[in-house]
Structures are given as C-alpha cells and as structure tokens.
Amino acid sequence: MTASAPTPRTGAAFLLAQLGAHAAGLFAERIAGLDLTPAQAGLLRMLATNPGRSQRELAGDLGMPPSRFVPFADELEERGLIERRRNPSDRRIYALHLTGKGEKLLAELAQVGMNHEQQICESLSPEEHGQLLELLRRIADQQGLHPDVHPGYRRLHPKPKPAHDTP
Amino acid sequence: MTASAPTPRTGAAFLLAQLGAHAAGLFAERIAGLDLTPAQAGLLRMLATNPGRSQRELAGDLGMPPSRFVPFADELEERGLIERRRNPSDRRIYALHLTGKGEKLLAELAQVGMNHEQQICESLSPEEHGQLLELLRRIADQQGLHPDVHPGYRRLHPKPKPAHDTP
DNA sequence: CGATAATGATTACAAAGTGGAACGATTGTC
DNA sequence: GACAATCGTTCCACTTTGTAATCATTATCG
C-alpha cells in the first residue's frame, strides 16, 4: 500500500474530537427520552455534587451568559427538578438546589449513563477499558479540565431529532 | 478516601465528549489564525482525499443542508481555495476541486494539526500515545464513523474569539 | 448615616444561525 | 416528447445567541 501521508489524518486529537461529538450526540439522544438536554443534565449533576451555588457561578461553569441561564433554570424549576432558595444573609443571591424529584431523575440519568458507557466501549476488553480511562484522565487533568463540565454545554438545544421512522 | 460513586462521574464516554469538545475548541482557535473554521478545514481535507464530488454529497457528509452549503462554498471559492468545475456529461453537477492555493493552505493546516496533536498528547509517552491511538481507532471503527468527517462540522461559526488582550 | 459604586437576577432586543420549502436548469425514464 | 427526478440556488420563517439596559440588594466610604 501507499506510504507517506501528508497529514496524520487520523491523529489522536482528531479522533478525540470526532468520537467526542459522536458520544455527545448519542448521549443527547438517550436523555431526550427523559426530556433532558445535555446542558440540563450537566446542571443537575453539578447541583448534586455542589449544591447552593449562585446562578452566575453556574452559568459561568456552563459557559453561557447569565441572561440565558435564567430561562434555562426556569424550565427546570417549573418541572420541579430544581429549587431557588433565597439566601437570608444576601438576598440578591439565589442558591440553587436539587429537589427530591430532581435527585430521582438524576438516578435514572446515572443508569442511562452506564448503558451509554457500555455502548461506547463495547469493542474494548475490561483491561483496555481501564487503559483508556487512565489515558483520558491523564490528558484531561493535564489540560486543566474540570471534572464536571465540558464546553459543549454552551449549546442548549442539541437538535429536534429527525427520527428514522417518519417518511 | 470515600468509596461508592453513584455515577461513574468520569466514565470514558463523558471524558471523550469533554476532551473532544476541548480539543475541537483548541483546534478552532489555532486555525482561526489561518481564517478557517473547522468545517472549512474539513471540506478542504475532504476535497484533498476525494476530489470532484458534488455539492450535495459533500453537504451530506458535512451534515448540513444543501442550502447552507452554497454560501459556505461561495466564500472558499471567492478566496480562491476551491474551484467549481462543470461536468460536461452532466451539467447540473458542480465538481468541487482544490486549487493550488487551497493545497498550499492545506499544507499549512497539516503543520497546525501536528502541533495540535502534540499539545493534546503532551502528557503521554510515545508508547501510550500509540496505545491511545489504537483504542480510539477501534472504537471509532466499531461505532461506524467515517475517517474524514465528524458531526461537529454541522456548525459553521465556532465563535468570534474573545481575545485576552482587549480590556 | 446617607450617597455612590458594585453585584446578582432579570428583561429587552438586535443580530446571527438554522433548516425546510419553492424555484429554474438539466437529465433520466418510458 | 411529456413527466418525474436531481442538482444548485434563493427565499424565508423560526430559533438561538450575546450585549445592553433595568431593578433589587449589598458593600464602600466620606
């Protein structure tokens, strides 16, 4: 076969971007069954691990302007998944918390995440899966990525799903 | 340290999505110096490896509707990077080709890609880098991903670069 | 202690991005 | 030779996006 390739056309960085978008899209499809977007799921997880933060902080971590965070949180609050609590010492701030319903949904979300993980890593042996995890964690750590947020959360609506059954 | 984690909060799938978005964003910043978006770079590469295809085909691979592909290709043509050639046997079709200028830019792009790869995999030994490549390729292959396109190409404008020098 | 600046949440709004439908031109089918 | 299909393109309504202005509350400071 031919030898020299001008570009490493399938370098690790490109594969990461490609697989990342693929995995993110697949995950978005899965959680659409729970009426959640990736950004919404991300917020729920953030609130679970770190409750009581202000909206501005959360918006910052999600990479979206505060103005768009408001209706974003509104919907989740109307659905009874999160709660806005006033801070008595500083009444400007809304401390966001997960409701019981929100925690329940988060549990379902965890299950979905497990299935998703399995689907993505289907072609890997348990040892290889462990290897991959370690390599990815190392890179993520060295690149200074926070454990809960990724830049893709900026986008609210992934897409309205042109399904495969409507002719 | 604490033991049970309700969710594999840093599973491989999540890390892939996170790192993928990170790598894609970083790459977008790099090629912004060449006045290119990821989608534009993707098209150039597609034309290099597979010239003469129709606009509809290319739009399909890029995941965008033909209506948006037209101005997208227009700009690249105005900049003299690609060429629309009429097919004598079927005058409906425009066969897209890379110009000399386009090939030249693609070479620069390859260089950028190498630097980018190095930056992402900085924390890995050569052996580990090879391991990662093999694992990612296996997954990508099993997930049915084409070697040249990834779903992130759907988006045209990555962002207007909020630089770090303008107060 | 009262005026002023600063911060958080929210609203208003203009600009841009997006996909689907409609339109000529050309080609395949029968 | 009429009719459906295909390609490139234009048109357009709809949504998404970020910035600026607004209101309430708190810190600063003379």
Helix and strand element order of chain A:
HHHHEEHH
Please work out how many helical segments of chain A DSSP would assign.
Answer: 6
Sheet with the most strands: spatial strand order of chain A: 1-2
Helix content of chain A: 55-70%
Strand-pairing-aware structural class of chain A:
mainly alpha
Mean pLDDT across the residues of chain A is 89
**DSSP, total strands of chain A:** 2
For the largest interface, the chains and their residue counts are:
A-B, 57 and 58 residues
Q: What fraction of residues of chain A sit in β-strands? A: 5-15%
Question: What would you report as the Rg of chain A, rounded to the nearest angstrom?
Answer: 19 Å
- Low-confidence segments of chain A, given as residue ranges, are 1-7, 160-167
* Principal-axes shape call of chain A: globular
Oligomer: homodimer
Characterize the biggest β-sheet of chain A: 2 strands, antiparallel
Termini gap of chain A: 43 Å
Write the SSE topology.
The structure is a homodimer of 167-residue chains.
Chain A lengths: L11 H21 L5 H12 L5 H8 L3 H13 L3 E6 L2 E9 L1 H21 L5 H17 L25
Antiparallel strand pairs in A: 1-2
The structure holds a DNA duplex (30 and 30 nucleotides).
Outline the structure in words.
Two copies of one chain form a homodimer. By secondary structure, chain A is mostly helical. The first copy, chain A, is 55% helix and 9% strand. Chain A is built from six helices and two strands, in the order ααααββαα. Chain A has helices spanning 12-32, 38-49, 55-62, 66-78, 100-120, 126-142; strands at residues 82-87, 90-98. A two-stranded antiparallel ribbon of chain A has the order 1-2. In chain A, a hairpin with a 2-residue loop joins strand 1 and strand 2. In chain A, helix 1 crosses helix 5 and helix 3 (55-62) crosses helix 4 (66-78). The longest helix of chain A is centred in the N-terminal third of the chain and has 21 residues, at 12-32. Chain A is globular. Mean pLDDT of chain A is 89; it is low at 1-7 and 160-167. The interface between A and B is large, with 57 and 58 residues. The structure holds a DNA duplex (30 and 30 nucleotides).
